[in-house]
Design a protein that fits this description.
It contains 15 helices and two strands. The chain has helices at residues 3-31, 33-44, 46-59, 78-85, 90-98, 105-142, 146-156, 161-177, 184-202, 204-217, 226-238, 247-251, 256-265, 270-278, 308-336, and strands at residues 285-288, 296-299. It has a two-stranded antiparallel sheet with strand order 1-2. The protein is globular, with a radius of gyration of 23 Å.
């Protein structure tokens, strides 16, 4: 890949992660105040600890781990593989030379470590928020006492500290039985995976919301809305090969970061308010002629429909963006006069 282009794209991704996490968390604080404390506890508690554990793993070249996605190809970084086995094909030799004998892998380890921290802290924060919303709704419907609601929240979170300790012991036993080294990093990953499976059985919607939020914070969700168009254009460029050499991939090495950054930036325009009103991207909305009277709006087949938290968060982004744009326009007009 074109390492200068790759590094610049990663730098954009890093800036996007920071801006996304800060701004979008602020929007959550404004639009979901009843559950925001729980979001902070998750992000700065378990999420922070998981993130720091993955930072250490990334700096050792172990690759990024995402709970619930053990088969993700992101776990095996191409440059790390090249470092371990050495170049054998012409393309690998080009990559080897361009990366200064794979020494640039350290740069990408740092980038991966930052990505891992944001992803884990964001995911845990959103899961705590979603679980808190679920429990508040249950408590209201079933007239739960405070003690009953707290106990249910702990269950929704996969248990307290004792559940994590038990999962660690199970992981250690499984590794020893398999004849594998029971190092703490691997045991921790297995324990978090076990807890996540328990959560998915109890509250799958909250797990989905957490995964989506985390992917959005690091600009790694599957491109959607306008992002699909940008992604298709990038794929077309990436498919350009010259004499078998991946020229297009060298020119634009990363797709999701660029596509998603463009798509999410549109939330800060009037589109943010439109997306709130529709509950989906405009490209996913269809006119429903089946209704009697005035036609309605319904999602296209396979469209992503935003949950209430995401709708309000996108609306807040649109409001803030339009407010700042209006203020800048007024200030510019005043200076002209």
């Amino acid at each position: 890949a074109n390492w200068l282009s790759g590094l610049s794209t990663q730098a954009i991704g890093l800036a996007g992660n920071s801006a996304n996490m800060g701004l979008r968390s602020f929007f959550l604080a404004v639009t979901s105040p009843a559950d925001f404390k729980r979001y902070l506890r998750g992000a700065l508690g378990v999420g922070k600890d998981a993130g720091l554990a993955e930072v250490k793993a990334a700096m050792k070249g172990r690759g990024m781990f995402k709970v619930g996605r053990l088969d993700s190809p992101e776990i095996a970084n191409a440059l790390e593989v090249l470092f371990r086995k050495g170049p054998t094909t012409p393309a690998e030799w080009v990559a080897y030379v361009a990366s200064a004998g794979t020494r640039l892998r350290m740069v990408f380890r740092i980038m991966g470590a930052i990505d891992a921290f944001f992803w884990n802290s964001a995911r845990e924060g959103m899961y705590h928020l979603a679980a808190s919303r679920t429990v508040r709704k249950m408590a209201k419907e079933k007239s739960m006492t405070t003690e009953e609601a707290n106990a249910e929240l702990i269950r929704q979170l996969g248990g307290g500290p004792e559940a994590y300790e038990a999962a660690l012991k199970d992981a250690e036993a499984a590794l020893i039985k398999a004849g594998q080294p029971a190092d703490m990093a691997t045991m921790d990953r297995m324990a978090r995976e076990s807890i996540d499976k328990a959560r998915a059985e109890i509250n799958p919607e909250a797990v989905q919301a957490a995964n989506r939020w985390a992917d959005r914070m690091v600009l790694q969700q599957e491109p959607e809305g306008v992002g699909k168009i940008i992604s298709a254009l990038i794929k077309a460029v990436q498919s350009i090969n010259v004499a078998g050499f991946p020229l297009g991939q060298m020119l634009v090495p990363f797709n999701k970061i660029v596509s998603n950054l463009f798509e999410q930036s549109l939330d800060y325009t009037g589109l943010g308010l439109v997306r709130y009103a529709l509950g989906m991207h405009i490209s996913d909305a269809r006119i429903d002629w089946s209704r009697k009277g005035i036609p309605g709006i319904s999602p296209a087949k396979g469209a992503k429909v935003f949950d209430e938290v995401e709708r309000r968060e996108r609306a807040m982004a649109g409001f803030v963006g339009l407010t700042l744009s209006a203020a800048a326009y007024v200030a510019a007009k005043a200076n002209m006069d």
